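Hi P.,

Sorry for the delay on this. The queue was packed all week, but I finally got your sequence through. Input first:
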Amino acid sequence: MKSTRTKVLIVGAVVILAVAAALAQGMRGHGGPGGFEHMLGFYSDYLDLSSAQQDQIRAIMQKEKPTLAPLMQQIKQFHSQMNQFDQSGTFDEAKVRALATQQSQTMIELAVQHARIKSEMLQVLTPDQKTKFAQLQAKREQRMQKHMQHMGHMPEPPSD
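Then the structure:
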């Protein structure tokens, strides 16, 4: 029971970071559109979103961007500070613990914001689109679990 909860938390944290990073900062890759626009294009095709639905989702993200951007900046700073610790060659447990505690609070806030945004976006979808979205999320979670198992971060799920 406890290991299942841990797995879900790990997968959830990874997914939240990836989605929030794309949504909040519109990361660019290979000169293409921002991360959010790319993701919206994928979901538009997969879920067959109407133009009105796309506009509603864009409006939700525009409204939330000022909330998400500072959280993502904090995550970025955390990684930068951790890299500095790694490169210094010295280990200061108190500093690492303080930084990790701060990071965990940021992750909690990010998870809450993500859940709220996802809830708002789901309200835009039709029942059929919600079903397709849930199926896509389940497939994504399975892939993430396989990846985590392959990387040695998670035990194999019990076979029923």
